[in-house]
Design brief:
With 436 residues, the chain is mostly helical. It folds into three domains: 93 residues, Fumarase C, Chain B, domain 1 (Orthogonal Bundle), CATH 1.10.275.10; 210 residues, Fumarase/aspartase (Central domain) (Fumarase C, Chain A, domain 2), CATH 1.20.200.10; 33 residues, no CATH class. Helices cover 59% and strands 5% of the residues. The strands form three sheets. A two-stranded antiparallel ribbon has the order 1-2. Strands 3-4 form a two-stranded parallel sheet. The protein has a two-stranded antiparallel ribbon with strand order 5-6. Helix 7 links the parallel strand 3 and strand 4. Helix 2 packs across helix 7. The longest helix has 37 residues. It is elongated. The termini are far apart. It binds arginine (ARG).
């Protein structure tokens, strides 16, 4: 049997098997720690709505509001702990209010359900974090652009099929990531817009027989609009979580590819890049080792995110309305969001810790890599491309890597990277304008 506090047990002192309850609670209480502040803020807005329609007097509203403010403060200071004595964060708020305010505390949950409550605090958590992640994404794009700026003249081999292809520059390689990050930061903006609707007031998924001022409450919580239909509100759980992770996936794809490139370029065989000591780790047995573990863990983070997405995707094969299955979407959602945030926060430091070995990169550019330049030199002299291609195949090009790069003048080419255009797109994102 359990001595936990349950909102739904009423006065009949229902006895529930503790093991069963532990299974049903899962990690919920731990996960609710990430949502608790949002839950309190949403509860404060909800009681504001109850005051507007006369369910609470101004005095009752104030007492409840103040009591929740104290709870928020205590929680932030670590003096109120969400522990296993509560079923979830939602119940903890109500128990606290009732403990402090007696019968008045019992009024706070009027006209809502934990079903719209969990949706609301999760959505606030997601909005906040997406905004933060978008900023991190922009900061990262900026640091990649800054590094690119320093390496517009640093030649490196360009590969297709992982075989030497044509000369390229470090700046070109980096600017590719910067442009992608800028586009992906824009995806985050549109995801924020997509999820920016308040489910609060849809209750268990059918609305309530009260004239709740849903628009007022939505506005107070900073939502752009109300999520009107209560069935849709419930059906959006998991679905919205998925779109959040999907947009983070786009961002993290850049990190995986960048990490992969670094892993290769850091091998002795390539020797193009090294990492400052601040970012390498040693081996417990091999004294000679200095390993880029951080790069590998950043690469692996996308797999974790992918796993989280798969979990949610599988989970939302459900009929309409609230099902307790949905509780299990909380862990992968929170894990995916927090991991992305952690990786993005560390990325600018990693960028700063990179050292490029110009000589090694230059040595890896063999004369055959200028064959395309050779063919196009013939084209400029009037030969058709196919004939010029055949000619270049049999010749040893005298064109240098530097000449090859200097001639790459069309927009995006090594001699015309458009870094200033990318910089402008980044600034437009700051103003929440379309990047184009
Ligand atoms: N912990 C629950 C969840 O995340 C809260 C909602 C509970 N609702 C219910 N009808 N049992 O889904």
């Amino acid at each position: 049997m359990t001595n936990k506090n349950y909102l739904w047990s009423g006065d009949d002192n229902q006895s529930i098997d503790a093991e069963l309850m532990d299974f049903m609670a899962g990690n919920d209480i731990k996960l609710d720690r990430y949502l608790f502040i949002y839950d309190i803020v949403a509860s404060q807005a909800h009681i504001g709505g109850l005051k507007t329609i006369g369910i609470l007097t101004s005095d009752e509203y104030k007492k409840l509001h103040d009591c929740m403010a104290v709870l928020k403060d205590l929680y932030q200071k670590g003096e109120f702990v969400l522990d296993n004595s509560y079923e979830d964060g939602h119940s903890a708020i109500e128990f606290y209010l009732t403990e402090k305010l007696g019968d008045l505390g019992k009024k706070a949950h009027t006209g809502r359900s934990r079903n719209d409550q969990v949706l609301t605090c999760s959505r606030l958590f997601q909005k906040d974090n997406l905004q933060h992640i978008q900023k991190l994404c922009k900061t990262l794009a900026q640091s990649v652009l800054n590094l690119a700026q320093q390496h517009t003249q640093t030649a490196m081999p360009g590969y297709t099929h992982l075989q030497r292809a044509m000369p390229n520059t470090v700046a070109s390689w980096l600017a590719g990531f910067a442009e992608s990050l800028i586009d992906d930061a824009y995806i985050l903006s549109s995801t924020i817009d997509y999820i920016d609707c308040s489910p609060l007031g849809t209750a268990a998924g059918f609305g309530v027989p009260l004239d709740l001022p849903r628009e007022q409450v939505a506005k107070e919580l900073g939502f752009a609009r109300v999520q009107i239909n209560p069935v849709y509100a419930q059906n959006s759980r998991g679905k919205f979580d998925l779109v959040v992770l999907q947009s983070l996936y786009q961002v993290m794809l850049n990190i995986r590819r960048f990490s992969w490139d670094l892993s290769l370029y850091m091998t002795a065989e390539f020797g193009f890049v090294s990492l400052n000591k601040s970012h390498t780790t040693g081996s417990s047995i091999m004294p000679n080792k200095s390993n880029p573990d951080v790069v590998e863990l950043m690469r692996a983070s996308l797999s974790v995110l992918e796993g989280a997405m798969a979990q949610i995707q599988a989970l939302i094969s459900l009929p309409s309305g609230y099902q307790r299955d949905l509780q299990m979407s909380k862990e992968p959602m929170i894990k995916g969001v927090l991991l992305t945030k952690q990786v993005l926060k560390l990325m600018p430091g990693l960028i700063k810790a990179l050292n490029f070995n110009k000589e090694k990169m230059q040595q890896a550019i063999s004369p055959d890599m200028m064959a395309t330049d050779q063919a196009l030199a013939h084209v400029k002299a009037g030969t058709s491309f196919r004939d010029a291609y055949g000619q270049a195949k049999t010749e040893v090009s005298q064109i240098t890597a530097q000449e090859s790069l200097n001639n790459r003048i069309s927009l995006g080419g090594a001699a015309n990277l458009g870094l200033d255009v990318l910089q402008k797109r980044l600034r437009k994102l700051d103003k929440r304008l379309l990047p184009y």
